[in-house]
Write a structure and sequence with these properties.
It holds the Pfam family S1_RRP4. By secondary structure, this protein is α+β, with helices and mostly antiparallel strands. 17% of the residues lie in helices and 35% in strands. It starts with a strand and ends in a 6-residue tail after the last helix.
């Protein structure tokens, strides 16, 4: 079956289920962290990206979801063929001093967290390494995520836009568009309405096969 980000694959995942790429556990349920086709091999369940998936390039801004915490690094789903790596060594000196083990690293980022990052390098086998100047700042507050074809978001002068009324939009080159508050906190009703309008504008443009850029949602943004 085909799934999108956040879709439940198994409502009650048993201990025998092996979680593969493109999946994560949330409240006992196995959910998808990428759009694609569910594949099963014995007890292994994973989500393979659909054709036209994301091909990373150095300098790309991406929105991804942390799916695993390992000593000195996080594994992040950015809709590529393999999970991207965010090493602790690329997170800045202050953060490196604060996180000296997996437990402390979880105080910064845990499974399910959305982040904004930049592609630092791409290995010959396709492994993507990410870079952020501040791992704390890279964690995105609660917001809305719209998944579109990566080909619709071309490299642009700016991928992060402040849209007024405390809203921000991040256009990930991997086809993940995040709409939410500039800072953590509760959204006011007018902010929620504006975020929904921006997300709908992005969905409408994607459905029509139009490139996603500032002009796509500028008319829907608060003034």
């Amino acid at each position: 079956m085909q799934v999108c980000v956040g879709d439940v694959i198994e409502a009650e995942a048993s201990d025998s289920v092996l979680r593969g790429h493109g999946t994560m556990l949330r409240g006992g349920s196995l959910v998808a962290t990428r759009c694609g086709q569910v594949q099963r091999w014995n007890q292994l369940v994973l989500v393979e990206p659909l054709a036209g998936g994301y091909t990373a390039a150095v300098g790309h801004v991406v929105v991804g979801r942390v799916v695993q915490v390992e000593p000195s690094r996080w594994l992040v789903d950015v809709r590529a063929r393999t999970l991207a790596v965010l090493p602790l060594s690329t997170a800045g000196g202050a953060v490196r001093k604060a996180a000296e083990g997996a437990l402390d690293m979880r105080s910064i980022l845990v499974e399910g967290d959305l982040i904004a990052a930049e592609v630092q390098s791409v290995r010959a086998d396709g492994q993507v390494q990410l870079h952020v100047r501040d791992a704390v700042a890279s964690k995105l507050p609660p917001g809305m995520v719209v998944s579109v074809a990566p080909t619709l978001i071309r490299p642009q002068r700016k991928h992060i836009h402040q849209c007024g009324s405390g809203l921000k939009v991040i256009l990930g080159c991997n086809g993940m568009v995040w709409v939410g508050l500039e800072a953590s906190g509760s959204a006011a009703p007018d902010q929620v309405q504006a975020a929904v309008q921006i997300a709908e504008a992005v969905r409408g443009a994607a459905k029509a096969g139009q490139p996603i850029m500032l002009a796509t949602f500028q008319a829907s943004a608060p003034r």
